[in-house]
Amino acid sequence: MKRVKVAYGAAPSQFGHVYLPACTPEDYQTVPLVVLIHGGYWSTEFSLTIQTAVARSLAERGAVVWNIEYRRVGEPGGGWPNTGRDVVAALRALDGPVAAALPDDVRSRVAWRSVSVVGHSAGGMLAVWATTEIGAATQRSAITTIIAQSAPLDLTVGAGYERGSVRKLMGVDYDVAPQRYRDASPACQPVCAAQIIALHAGDDEMVPVESSRHYVDTVTERGQSAKLVVVDGERHEAFIHPASACARRTVRLLGL
Fold first, then answer.
1. What is the pLDDT of residue 22?
2. Neighbouring C-beta atoms of residue 84, cutoff 10 Å
3. Which segments constitute the BD-FAE-like domain (predicted)?
């Protein structure tokens, strides 16, 4: 399996890994494209490598995978809004450096008008926010599915803004700058054309399932296509293990 490092900006953390599908061009008519956004409290304590096993698993199923890094709290330029802007830039890079990294026979078969974005935990928040920020489309690509895995999706409620990791990301307390939190909260973003799936581990104690249920109820009232899927019996970290029920459900939702 081939992996290519691709930069989408000049900062050290503005890059990602493109995984090529583990099959030959004769094996497919169209090639799925999946963007992965890792979690880890938006902190430099975690990096895109925690999604390496997942990325490899998806590529083995025939997908092109764009596993992205971004500037996080604890490094120059990290924190809001630059962390979110980096993910926007990484999505827009699908049109340029990501496409350029693909062999011609793969690039011509990629389903550019049906891209999926998958984010775990903090990465799920970024996946929804960045996709809605660009209207679920770049010049060449359309994002049709977002899977937010056990993600904090409303930063304007106590379960969101009271989290220490959220305060570090925002750089200020909610009471001081509530609009800053609203601007960053996926629950406050405009309706977009993509379907949003809030996929939650049923035994998650870090981000309770009520967080995703509240998000889906909130945005569907405004007309957003969104649904909640709960995987019973697993916890928050299950999504980064390809053999877990949470990871297998993700694969099924992606149609792989």
1. 87
2. 21
3. 26-214
Burial 15-48 (b: 16+ CB within 10 A, else e): bbbbbbbeeeeeeeeebbbbbbbbbbbbbeebeb
Predicted local distance difference test score (pLDDT) of residue 74: 94
pLDDT tier, 26 (very low <50, low <70, confident <90, very high otherwise): low
Cα–Cα distance measured from residue 18 to residue 177, given in angstroms and rounded to the nearest whole number: 37
Give, in order, the Cα–Cα distances in Å from 138 to each of 37, 131, 170.
17, 10, 26
Half-sphere exposure (CA, 13 Å, Cβ side) for 91? 29
Alpha helices per DSSP H over 221-244: none
β pairing state of 64-68 and 15-19: antiparallel
| CA gap 96, 63 in Å, rounded | 18
Is residue 204 within 8 Å of 235, Cβ to Cβ? yes
Structure tokens at 157: 């409620």
Is residue 82 scored above 80 in pLDDT?
A: yes
The answer to whether 218 touches 154, Cβ cutoff 8 Å, is yes
Say what percent of the chain tops pLDDT 70.
98
- Give Cβ neighbours of residue 106 (< 8 Å, ≥ 6 apart): 20, 21, 25, 31, 64
Answer whether 135's CB lies under 8 Å from 143's CB: no
Partners of 6 in the beta sheet?
16
Residue 226 near residue 220, CB atoms below 8 Å:
yes
Q: Across the strands, what pairs with 31?
A: 110
215-256 per-position pLDDT tens digit: 999 999 999 999 999 999 999 999 999 999 999 999 999 999
Give domain limits for the chain.
3-254
